[in-house]
Every structure is written in structure tokens, then in C-alpha cells.
Amino acid sequence: MAENITIRRATETDLEIMVGFNIAMARETEDKGLDTDTLRRGIAALLRNDNLGFYLVAEVDGQPAGQIMVTTEWSDWRNSHFWWLQSLYVLPEHRRKGVFRSLYDYIVARAKEAGDVCGIRLYVERTNHRAKDVYVNLGMELSHYDMYEVEF
Question: Could you give the CA distance from residue 141 to residue 137 in angstroms, rounded to a whole number?
Fold first, then answer.
């Protein structure tokens, strides 16, 4: 288990770290290249506008080791929000050492404290079986919903 893991809210000074983490995550999980300028502007917009969500950074011994983005979805059925976990990335040398667990536990605690969050959701690429195993081991369950989309 990694020692000295701290979780903090990302700031604009973390922008380039998050750009790099997102590029690595997309390449690793979906073999997808991202447009760096668009990505940079997207992360910067979120960092400047809390209504879009927030990023958290996990540090090990003071150095960035992972990140996660949280966005919200309003549920009229529950009169509450779901927090969506997105853009999760942990550097390979810090995997299986508690970094993601620390991020997840931090998010769950903050969601429960918020008082208007009814649950946490995420989506995962179908063939990413290792990630699916991690989520199940955290106590998450496979939803009965399928996701559809159209991109513009």
C-alpha cells in the first residue's frame, strides 16, 4: 500500500498535469488520441466553473499520482444529485497501492456530507475488465441501464 496519499481539489496550476493524465488515460483505455488544445480548454473551463464539476488530485509524497473528475446529474426521481466519476487516471507506478481507493473514499465521504447526493455513478469501456473488477471490489454494482449517445 502506498504511503502518504493525500487528496486535494485541483487548481488551475494542475492544468498541464491533468492534460497529460487524460491523454495517457484515453490512449491506454480506448487507444484514442485526444486533441490537446480542446482538452486543455475543457479542463480549464471546469477548473474555473464549479457548476461544471471538479477535479481531485491524489498525491503520493507530495507528487501527483492520479486524478478524477466529478460531475453531477440531477435526478428528479430522487430529488437529489448523482455524482459521476470521470477522467480517472492513476500513474502506472502507483497502481494497486491505494491511490484510487483513496480518491473513491474521499468522494464517497464528501458526497455523504453534501446532503443532496443520492449516489455515485461511472461508466467504463466494455472491455476494461480490470477496471470493472476494481469497481466491484469497491462495492459498486453493475447498473441495469445501457448508455446510448450521439456525438456532434
Answer: 9
Distance, in Å, from the CA atom of 71 to the CA atom of 86, rounded to the nearest integer, reads 8
Pairing of strands 63-75, 54-60: antiparallel
pTM: 0.92
Q: How many CB atoms lie within 10 A of CB 1?
A: 9
Cα–Cα nearest to 85, from 105, 65, 64, 59 = 105
What is the per-residue pLDDT across 20-48, written as a single tens digit (0 to 9) for each? 999 999 999 889 999 999 999 999 999 99
Determine whether 119 is exposed, middle or buried from the number of CB atoms within 10 Å of its CB (0-12, 13-18, 19+): middle
Sheet holding 54-60, edge to edge: 5-9, 54-60, 63-75, 80-90, 117-122
